[in-house]
From TrEMBL:
Localization (cell): Cell membrane
Keywords in alphabetical order: Antibiotic resistance, ATP-binding, Nucleotide-binding, Transport
Superkingdom, natural source: Bacteria
Record-linked Pfam families: ABC_tran
Name the UniProt record assigns to this protein: ABC-2 type transport system ATP-binding protein
GO cellular component terms attached to this protein's record: plasma membrane
Membrane topology: Peripheral membrane protein
Primary location group: membrane
UniProt-listed InterPro entries: AAA+_ATPase, ABC_transporter-like_ATP-bd, ABC_transporter_ATP-binding, P-loop_NTPase
Organism: Sphaerisporangium rubeum
Length: 261
């Protein structure tokens, strides 16, 4: 469902170093990244700040074009077939909404139906289903800007799934949520994957999300894949540690540049 083969993405950054001087630096955000996610998998995508997670997600959704390598998502090249891909993928960014700020949630959903050309009956059925499981009823007619963070995230998840995509990509969906909202979002995602077979790629700094949801974990560091395996295999990388937090800290610091240099 998701295939990356030797994918790289670099950015050229220009910095002013004097009145007439500029320094050019190339940042390799992602380097030689290869992995496959099979249909129905639920994969956690972890990495320290600046590791290259968002850059990967932007390439998977066609927002960024890779500098090298090959990507296929649901059989499509994301940067060349962005519009077609939009009908086969759902994307949720926990830190920003894809909904219309001044419109009631319900109107945002109707606009999305129109944009994705979802059949009226399919839309009505899907909205009822999503409304029930995500408990959207009490705030469907509230403008998005008046929603609490937890309500807004549930609205964004529903919006990403109205067209019933086979792939869902989530970028920190539980960031800032209280324990109850977090549990509701996690339960929903687990059921979605188990019952509909939706393939899920989840980026998060919340290791509770990983522990509760992901059978497989990929860890990216300095733009390269540093680990790809099951949760027990991840734990086995640092046998002296007993918690996932400690194991992940161990992996992150193992690759960190020395402070002394
Ligand atoms: N548009 C850009 N121009 C220049 N550099 C960029 C750009 N986007 C990302 N980078 C750099 O690429 C590297 C990877 O960034 P990215 O946002 O993918 O990391 P991340 O793993 O998502 O981090 P975080 O967990 O902090 O969100 C960083 O060094 C970042 O500064």
């Amino acid at each position: 469902m998701i295939e990356l083969d030797g994918v790289g993405r670099s950015f050229t950054v220009r910095r002013r170093t004097g009145p007439l001087r500029r320094q050019t630096r190339v940042v390799h955000a992602v380097r030689d990244l290869s992995f496959r996610v099979e249909p129905g998998e639920f994969v956690g995508y972890l990495g320290p700040n600046g590791a290259g997670k968002s850059t990967t997600i932007k390439m998977l959704t066609g927002i960024l074009t890779p500098t090298s390598g090959r990507i296929r998502v649901a059989g499509l090249d994301p940067s060349r077939r962005r519009t077609t891909l939009a009908r086969r993928i759902g994307v949720v960014f926990g830190q920003r909404t894809t909904l219309w700020w001044d419109l009631p949630l319900r109107s945002s959903f109707h606009l999305i139906r129109h944009l994705y050309k979802v059949d009226h009956q399919v839309f009505a059925r899907r909205l009822t289903e999503l409304g029930e499981v995500l408990e959207l009823g009490p705030f469907l007619d509230t403008p998005v800007r008046q929603l609490s963070l937890g309500q807004r995230v549930r609205g964004d998840i529903a919006a990403a799934l109205l067209h019933d995509p086979p792939v869902l990509v989530l970028d920190e969906p539980t960031i800032g949520l209280d324990v109850v909202s977090k549990a509701a979002v996690r339960d929903f995602l687990r059921d979605l994957n188990a019952e509909r077979g939706t393939t899920v790629l989840l980026t998060t700094h919340d290791l509770g999300d990983i522990e509760r949801l992901c059978r497989r974990v990929m860890l990216i560091d300095h733009g390269s894949l540093a680990f790809d395996g099951t949760l027990p295999a991840l734990m086995a990388t640092a046998p002296a540690e007993t918690t996932i937090e400690a194991v992940v800290t161990h992996l992150y610091t193992r690759n960190a540049p020395s402070q002394a240099q």
